[in-house]
Design brief:
Layout: E1 2-7, E2 16-21, E3 27-33, E4 37-40, E5 45-53, E6 61-62, E7 75-77, E8 82-83, E9 87-88, E10 94-101, E11 111-116, E12 122-127, E13 133-137, E14 143-148, E15 161-162, E16 182-189, E17 193-201, E18 211-213, E19 219-221, E20 227-233, E21 236-238, E22 241-243, E23 252-253, E24 257-258, E25 269-271, E26 276-277, E27 282-284, E28 297-303, E29 313-317, E30 328-333, E31 339-342, E32 353-358, E33 374-375, E34 388-389, E35 393-394, E36 397-399, E37 403-411, E38 421-425, E39 431-434, E40 436-437, E41 442-448, E42 451-458, E43 465-466, E44 478-480, E45 485-486, E46 491-493, E47 499-501, E48 504-506, E49 514-518, E50 521-522, E51 529-536, E52 539-543, E53 546-548, E54 558-565, E55 570-574, E56 586-592, E57 595-601, E58 612-622, E59 628-639, E60 642-647, E61 654-664, E62 671-679
Parallel strand pairs: 1-8, 1-9, 10-16, 17-26, 17-27, 28-35, 28-36, 37-45, 37-46
Antiparallel strand pairs: 1-4, 2-3, 2-5, 5-6, 5-7, 10-13, 11-12, 11-14, 14-15, 17-20, 18-19, 18-22, 21-25, 22-23, 23-24, 28-31, 29-30, 29-32, 32-33, 32-34, 37-41, 38-39, 38-42, 40-41, 42-43, 42-44, 47-50, 48-49, 49-53, 51-52, 51-54, 54-55, 56-57, 57-60, 58-59, 58-61, 59-60, 61-62
InterPro entries: Carb-bd-like_fold, CarboxyPept-like_regulatory
Protein name: Carboxypeptidase regulatory-like domain-containing protein
Pfam family, one: CarboxypepD_reg
C-alpha cells in the first residue's frame, strides 16, 4: 500500500487526483483524493506520482514538488506498506475576495470569471462559497475579473460587473495574481439595471400588450397604460425592440428605426450597474388591415371575473388517434377587445376535425392573477374538450382566474431564516405551488386555482410547520377564490425540536409486568430517529421503548426520557413519574348498602404486609379519545389485606362497572383495578 496526504502550505488538506506512473511515465493506476489522504495498492517496484487538483486554486505537479516527470522523485515499494511524508501542493498565483449584495449579504454560487488582461480571453473561473468567498488560480500574469450572481433571497439576477466597479472588459482594472492571493476585497453586486418607457400609437394612445425587449432576452409587456419596465438588465449597451404579437401595430427599434432596416442601426441604450434608464419610448404605426379569406372559426376570450382576454394565444390542434401526437396547426392572438378568428381551417391538409384551446398565463403585472388554459366546451384538457369541424362557427371561451395566498415566514429566534419557503397542497395532498419569497420574508403567490389548500412552511435548520401553528394532521385549510388573495397566512418557525404532547408510560408499575413508552406528539417526526431511556431518579437503568419490571426495582419510581433526533437538532421530553414499583395487587369486593368490603392480596407478601389507600370510581361512559369517563363515588383504606370503602350514596339496582384506584404502601404496587358488580334490591 502506497499512502500519503496532500496539504497546502498552511497544512490544510487538498483534494484532487493522484496518478501512479512507471519510471518512464507509463500509466499504472489512479485514485481520486477526498479528505486529503490516499491509500493506493501497488505491486513492488519503482514509481512516480502526478497530482491533478480538484480546484483551480492549485497547480498540477509531480512528487515531490517537481514540475515534470523527468525531475519527479522516484518512490520505491519493496515488500512493505510505504507511507510518504506529507506532500505540500503549491497554490497557483490567484485572486481572492468576497462577493456580497449591496446590503452586505453573501452571494453563494456567485460566478467569478478571470480573463487574461493581454488577450481578453477567459482563462479561469470558479463559484463563490456559501459565505461568498472565492479564490481563483491562474497562470496569466495580469488578469481582469468579472462577477455575476443571483440574490440568495429573491433569486433576482444581480448586475454583473468587472473589477473595480467597471462596466466592460476594456475599462476593468487589471490585477496581478500572486501565490498568496491578490485580495480584491469585498465585491458588492447591486440590483440589475432597468429600462423603462411607454409605447403608444402615433396618435398618443397607450398600447396594451406590446412586447419590448433588450439584448440577452430581457423583455416585458406593456400594461394598460402602455408602460413597461425591463428589470435585471446587464451593464453595457443594448438594442431595444418594440413589437406587437397581436398584429395590430408595426414594430420598430429604438429610436424609430424599422425592424427591417439594413441601412440604419438602432440607437443603443447604455445601462450602468443598478442604473434605471427611463424614457425609452416608442410610437407605433397601425398595421394595414387585411381582409380575411372567409372565417371558419371566431369568438371572444373573457375571464370569469368579467375582463376581456387581450393578447392570449388561441391554438388549433389536430385530433390523431393518440392524443400525445396532437400538434398545433394554427395559432392567433385574441385582439385588444378579446376577439379572435381563423380563416383557413378548411385548407389544413388531411385534417377535418380539431381541438381548440386558449393558453393561460401567469399574472401579467404586479397584482394580477394567473389565467388557466381552457379548452373548447369549457374543459380543462385535451381529452375532455369538444371536437370541432372546419366549418364556420362561433366559439367563445371563459378563462378560469387564479386566486392567491400571501403572508410571511420568520423565525422565532428573530429575523428571516435561511432558505425559507411556503408551499401549498390541495385536498388530494398534491403539491400545488410555492410562495415567492422576498428578502424580508414576505411571500405571495397569485397562481393558485380556486379551492381549499393546506400551507406548509420551512427553512434551513428550522422545524417545518403547517398553518395555523400546526402539524400536518391538524393543518387549517386556506380557501382560495378567483381573483382574491387569502392574506395573513404566516408562520414564525422554531429552531427547537419540542414535544407538543408529553410522552407517557403505558402499563402498571408491577414486578413482572412490561412498561412501554408512548413517545407523545412532536413538532417534527417524519424524518426523526427516536430513542428511549428509563431513569430511576437521574440514573439511566435501561434503554429501549419497553421495560420488563424486575424485583430489583422494588420501591423505585421510574420515568422515561424520549429523545427526538431530527438531524439538524434534537429535543428531549420526560414522562410523568410512575408510582413506586411494587407487587401486583389482586382485589375481591363485596358490596352492601353504602359499603364495599375489600380483600387485597399482593403475592408474595403476607396479608399483614398488604396496605393501601383506595379511591372508588364508577364508569359513566367513554370519551371521544377512548378514555373512560369516571365519577368518584367513595374511598377507603386497606390494612393487613382487608378494608372497607365508604360510598357517598348507595349504588342503585343493576350492573355497575367500578374502578378501584389502588395506591399501595410498602411493597404493594399501585394501579387501577376494574370490578363489575350487580346490585339486587
Amino acid at each position: 500500500m502506497l499512502s500519503g496526504s496532500l496539504v497546502d502550505v498552511a497544512g490544510n488538506y487538498v483534494e484532487g487526483q493522484v496518478t501512479v506512473l512507471g519510471p518512464d511515465g507509463q500509466f499504472v493506476t489512479t485514485q481520486a483524493v477526498t479528505g486529503g489522504s490516499f491509500d493506493i495498492p501497488v505491486e513492488d517496484g519503482t514509481y512516480k506520482l502526478e497530482f491533478d487538483p480538484a480546484s483551480s486554486e492549485f497547480a498540477s505537479e509531480y512528487y515531490r514538488d517537481k514540475a515534470d516527470l523527468a525531475t519527479a522523485d522516484v518512490v520505491t515499494v519493496a515488500g512493505a506498506a510505504q507511507t510518504l511524508p506529507a506532500w505540500t501542493i503549491d497554490r497557483r498565483p490567484n485572486v481572492l475576495g468576497v462577493v456580497r449584495t449591496a446590503d452586505g449579504r453573501p452571494v453563494p454560487g456567485a460566478y467569478v470569471a478571470v480573463y487574461d488582461a493581454a488577450t481578453g480571453t477567459q482563462v479561469a473561473s470558479d463559484y463563490a462559497n456559501r459565505d461568498g468567498s472565492f479564490r481563483v488560480g491562474t497562470q496569466a500574469a495580469s488578469v481582469k475579473v468579472r462577477f455575476s450572481g443571483y440574490d440568495p433571497r429573491t433569486d433576482d439576477l444581480l448586475a454583473a460587473e468587472w473589477f473595480n466597479d467597471k462596466a466592460t472588459l476594456e475599462t476593468a482594472d487589471a490585477v496581478t495574481p500572486t501565490a498568496a492571493g491578490a485580495d480584491l476585497g469585498v465585491v458588492s453586486l447591486g440590483a440589475g439595471g432597468s429600462i423603462s418607457g411607454t409605447v403608444t400609437t402615433e396618435a398618443g394612445a397607450p398600447i396594451y400588450r406590446a412586447y419590448v425587449c433588450a439584448d440577452l432576452g430581457y423583455c416585458d409587456w406593456t400594461n394598460a397604460s402602455g408602460q413597461y419596465l425591463i428589470e435585471g438588465v446587464q451593464t453595457g449597451t443594448s438594442e431595444v425592440s418594440f413589437t406587437d404579437p397581436i398584429g395590430e401595430y408595426v414594430g420598430e427599434y429604438w429610436d424609430n428605426v424599422p425592424l427591417s432596416s439594413t441601412t440604419v442601426d438602432p440607437t443603443p441604450v447604455t445601462v450602468a450597474p443598478g442604473q434605471a434608464v427611463s424614457g425609452i419610448n416608442a410610437a407605433l404605426a397601425v398595421k394595414p388591415a387585411t381582409t380575411p379569406n372567409g372565417t371558419d372559426l371566431s369568438g371572444t376570450v373573457r375571464d370569469e371575473i368579467g375582463g376581456a382576454g387581450v393578447g392570449y394565444r388561441v391554438q388549433v390542434l389536430t385530433t390523431p388517434a393518440d392524443p400525445r401526437d396532437a400538434s398545433v396547426v394554427a395559432e392567433t392572438y385574441s385582439n385588444r377587445v378579446g376577439a379572435y378568428h381563423f380563416d383557413g381551417l378548411d385548407r389544413v391538409g388531411g385534417e377535418t376535425e380539431f381541438k381548440v384551446r386558449v393558453v393561460g398565463e401567469a399574472g401579467r403585472e404586479d397584482g394580477e392573477f394567473a389565467r388557466r388554459t381552457i379548452w373548447a366546451g369549457d374543459k380543462l384538457d385535451y381529452a375532455t374538450s369538444t371536437t370541432i369541424t372546419a366549418a364556420p362557427r362561433t366559439l367563445d371561451f371563459l378563462q378560469p382566474v387564479a386566486g392567491g395566498i400571501s403572508g410571511a415566514v420568520t423565525s422565532e429566534a428573530g429575523g428571516v431564516p435561511e432558505s425559507p419557503y411556503a408551499s401549498f397542497r390541495d385536498v388530494d395532498g398534491d403539491l400545488a405551488g410555492y410562495g415567492e419569497l422576498e428578502a424580508d420574508g414576505t411571500y405571495e403567490s397569485r397562481d393558485v386555482w380556486a379551492g381549499d389548500y393546506t400551507v406548509s412552511f420551512g427553512a434551513y435548520n428550522h422545524v417545518t410547520e403547517w398553518w395555523k401553528d400546526a402539524t400536518f394532521d391538524e393543518a387549517t385549510k386556506v380557501t382560495v377564490r378567483p381573483g382574491q388573495m387569502a392574506t395573513g397566512i404566516s408562520a414564525a418557525l422554531s429552531k427547537d425540536v419540542k414535544a407538543l404532547e408529553r410522552p407517557q408510560v403505558e402499563g402498571d408499575a408491577w414486578v413482572g409486568k412490561t412498561l412501554r413508552v408512548d413517545k407523545g406528539r412532536w413538532n417534527t417526526e417524519g424524518g426523526s430517529k427516536f430513542t428511549y431511556e428509563w431513569l430511576a431518579g437521574s440514573t439511566v437503568v435501561a434503554t429501549g421503548d419497553s421495560l420488563k419490571v424486575t424485583k430489583a426495582m422494588l420501591g423505585k419510581k421510574l420515568t422515561a426520557r424520549v429523545t427526538n433526533d431530527a438531524g439538524f437538532a434534537q429535543g428531549q421530553a420526560v414522562t410523568a413519574t410512575t408510582p413506586k414499583i411494587g407487587y401486583k395487587p389482586k382485589l375481591k369486593v363485596k358490596v352492601t348498602a353504602k359499603r364495599i368490603a375489600m380483600t387485597l392480596k399482593a403475592k408474595p407478601l403476607k396479608a399483614k404486609k398488604v396496605k393501601a389507600s383506595v379511591v372508588v370510581y364508577e364508569v359513566k361512559g367513554e370519551k371521544a379519545d377512548g378514555e373512560l369517563k369516571l365519577k368518584k363515588i367513595g374511598k377507603g383504606v386497606v390494612k393487613k389485606g382487608t378494608g372497607v370503602a365508604t360510598l357517598k350514596k348507595a349504588l342503585g339496582k343493576g350492573k355497575h362497572q367500578l374502578v378501584f384506584r389502588i395506591k399501595g404502601k410498602g411493597k404493594v404496587g399501585s394501579g387501577d383495578l376494574v370490578e363489575k358488580v350487580k346490585i339486587k334490591r
